[in-house]
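Posting here for the record, re: nicotinamide-adenine-dinucleotide.
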Amino acid sequence: MSQQFDVLVIGAGPGGYIAAIRAAQLGFKVACIERWRNPKGDRVLGGTCLNVGCIPSKALLASSEHFESVQSHLDVHGISVKSASMDVSKMLGRKDQIVGKMTKGIEYLFKKNKITWLKGHGKFVGRQADRFAVDVFENGPEDGDAKDRVEATKVIIATGSKARHLAGIQVDQEYICDNEGALQFDTVPKRLGIIGSGVIGLELGSVWRRLGAEVTILEALPDFLAAADQAVAKEAWKLFTKQGLSIQLGAKVDSVAIEGKGKAKQVVMHYSDPKGEAKTLEVDRLIVSVGRQPLTEGLGLEAVGIETDQRGFIPVDAHCATSVEGIYAIGDVVRGPMLAHKAEDEGVMVAEIMAGQKPHIDYQCIPWVIYTSPEIAWVGRTEQELQKEGRAFKTGQFPFAANGRALGMDAADGFVKMICDKDTDEILGVHIVAAAASDLIAEAALAMEFKASAEDVARVCHPHPSLSEVMREAALAATENRALNL
Ligand code: FAD
Ligand code: NAD
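Prediction output follows.
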């Protein structure tokens, strides 16, 4: 007899585990199938985000930022440090400890909310009356026999994504790595190559550069950070290249091979620059960070009649319902930004819809953050997008160099740019380059969720001295060009 549940979640990344918790809070009998094993072979919850994504990368970013700060940024405070050294294995150990704490935390939350964790790979078998049947395999369908069969009236697919690899480039996670290998380098590579100057390229490139690697990034597009507002992209380019990241735009990678033996092993890359000139780049390690793709392999979607789109995503409506009533899909496996907080919000929304509530996500209000130094964050539309739409807008910008707290923190790089509707003053987008942009952007997201105008933000009392005053000044600048401190 199969185990019966009200709600079955497949995948326990930030989308799946949050959906499971919210569904349990709402009184459903919930199970979640998750197959992930950590490098020790233990089953763990948390998916990409906790195991090989957001959490470990931010731990390394923090360690490397401290290392760089001790070496280069304390002198202005009158602090001199004779020498600093980095114990990479200790840094990795700290990161693994944080990951372990977080994944155990989700186990605790599952127990607290009486969610059954089915350890293994889930595959749809089909539908019987109003219930979907899903087999659970120890490793995957290649096992032959399933170890369990479960049935549920509602299923949430939250199977996430995996790193996209390039044809002809064999990722071995030692010399040529995706995000998984790049979070595990046991020594600082002297020369690090990166393909793709997107979020992972910039974040992990920053980590290893701060620890001493010479970093060269090859980017196919002619524009840097094409999805960001161009004022932000321009400022970020200036700052990152000054920090020592070497970024070749418009690069076409022709071949990548591991050459040499023993200690002389290296990665040799042949590429052409925008003029078509052939170039060679020799590096000790290479990170391939050219985007991620949705993960539905071995999920048995055909058994319930769901077809993926051309790019492999599960098609869903604005409320994450698939073409099959009772089956929802959320997170990286569906359209929209591949971000943990977007996956979480979709998980909450779907659970509440199942309970008869009427939640809604405004996808324009989902913030983006790149955790470089300074950080980059934005929410809403860019100036280029509004120009394309032909919408009349006005902008206000304020630099951190004119903010007392930023100067005190030695964090005066960057600015806040606010874009508003020309007539109604409604905030349409906020773009930040700053030390604490990841926290500052939350105010902008809140304002936009409430359809606030720039004047609304400008009239809110902000603490002094604080970086948040720059948000208010940008709002004042956008309102009637009346910033007070510039
Ligand atoms: P995932 O986290 O990918 O989880 C899916 C889970 O489903 C996995 O655990 C997988 O094992 C499981 N699964 C898949 N198929 C099956 C099956 N058939 N049976 C059982 N289990 C299955 N986002 C941010 O918002 N902020 C960041 O700072 C950030 N940093 C990142 C850094 C890196 C290096 C990477 C790679 C990503 C980062 N992301 C970040 C993106 C973020 O990790 C993803 O958007 C997020 O994890 C998506 O959540 P998800 O639940 O949809 O999928
Ligand atoms: P990305 O989409 O951010 O960037 C990929 C880059 O690779 C792009 O600039 C693209 O033009 C370039 N590219 C693609 N093919 C190429 C080729 N053949 N040669 C050279 N360049 C090429 O992808 P990513 O950095 O791999 O990250 C994947 C996703 O993970 C992100 O889009 C994001 O959704 C998520 N993520 C988020 C965060 C965060 O929120 N801070 C951090 C890391 C990852």
